[in-house]
Amino acid sequence: MPGDTEKRLPQARYALFLLFLVSVLCYVDRTIIAAVAEDIKGEMGLTDGELGFLYGTSFSVLFALFGFPIGRLSDLLPRTRLMAAGLSFWSIMTMFAGVAWSFGTLALSRIGLGLGEATANPSSHSLISQYFPRKSRGRALAVYLTGTSLGGGLGLYIGGWMVQNWSDVCGSVPIGGACEISGWRAAMLLVGAPGVILAILVSRLREPQRPNLEKGRLGDLLLREFSASVPPLTLWAISREGGSVALLKNLAWLALLAGLCTGLTIWTGDSAQWIGFGIGLYALVSWITVLKIRDRPLFYLTYGDPVFVLALAGFTMLACISLSIGFWAVPYAIRVLEMPPADAGLYMGLSVAVTAGVGAMTGGFLVDWWRKFDQRAPLWIGIVVLVGKAPFIYLMFTTSDQTLFLWVFLIQSLFGSLFAASAAVLVQELVLVRMRGTAAAAFALTILLVSLAFGPYMLGKISELSGSLGGAIMSVYALAPFCLLCLVLAARQLTGQSDAIRLARARAYGEPTA
């Protein structure tokens, strides 16, 4: 009722403010490691490959692994309490990084960060959709998502400032022994603490009532959802629902991935990286297998559709390029260009904060305009980004001028954020209305898992072997021809497709006609 909506508007705005802060902290805690990476490396004697693992693989595997079931949890449990639990957990794990004593404990903190942050988006999106009426829901979600760009920039700024200035300001901190800890450790403790307090406030938010909420068999429902993607529960789910043939195929995938990752471990010596990567890939394969068993129409419009698969491969490689450069650019500026950490954090953080929001909005308007003339517009925009970034990436990592580096970083960051809306729009158009939430989550989590678990580590490993961080970063563009090929082939496959064709395809695999 209009009267009820007006009375609850102040509560909704307060809730949105808290959720915005959650979004900010989510990305502060996620990205701050880029600004303090050089100090961590120096203190703990880590390699560039280990830094890449800490940023990408250790975070992304658990984030993706639990992303699907936690999304389901947000439909079954009180979302405010679920998010509060996740927020407090990842904040504590961020602070744990500040007292970590080894590579292993640092990795554990990043794993915990990924697990906790998996609760943020599903719960927040669901809450905002109920707090606000349809007419203002888009603006409310935009406010929440703005926190991601602000948080990413703040993480770089705070990290850079703390590692450079902590020794000068620690004496004024009314805590005994403050000056005995290093700047990067103080930064982790500083950014983690507010999340624990915010979690208490989030837990006290009003939980909107939801119609038709499933009750009574919570344990069975949770087991069903977690068994789709979390090993070894996946073996039970596939055997029970798909039979012996499906189980044997899954075990064959397990053996193949185990053999591949064992070989890569022997070759590189980095067991943590390849064990984590292998677990992530096996979980993804298992989830796709369960999806095919449980929802054949959805499977054949996503992982069984050449357009979806080619677009997913292309955008995954494009994200791998962007995310890898996004992480390694700050250590490069500090290590190679000898930029003061506070300056690198400030100027590159500002670039991230501004371009992430502006680029996403610009990309959204661009894809809406272009689609009026060509339904393949999301794929063409991906190609524009891939080609447009290339000269700026080359200039960034060949110049010795700090000012030029910062301006070019700003431009390439803007390019890099243009394709997010295009990918999201494409996925929505490839599936039926009832499938859009799951398809979007599958697309995003697959991209995140593969690109973050592979790109940052590989660039770090190449840097170790070559002795050139700049050359290693530019080597990520070796993916460009394959990325271009996938996007072009996806565009060719998409030509002539329509909603009617997709509906007929779904019905051929069991979609109800009514």
UniProtKB/TrEMBL annotation:
Keywords: Membrane, Transmembrane, Transmembrane helix, Transport
PROSITE patterns: MFS
Topological relation to the membrane, as annotated: Multi-pass membrane protein
Designated name of the protein: Major facilitator superfamily (MFS) profile domain-containing protein
Occurrences of domain Major facilitator superfamily (MFS) profile (ranges): 15-498
Gene Ontology molecular function: transmembrane transporter activity
One matching Pfam family: MFS_1
Transmembrane segments: 12-30, 51-70, 82-103, 141-163, 183-202, 250-268, 274-294, 306-334, 346-367, 379-398, 404-427, 439-459, 471-491
Organism for this UniProt entry: Novosphingobium pentaromativorans US6-1
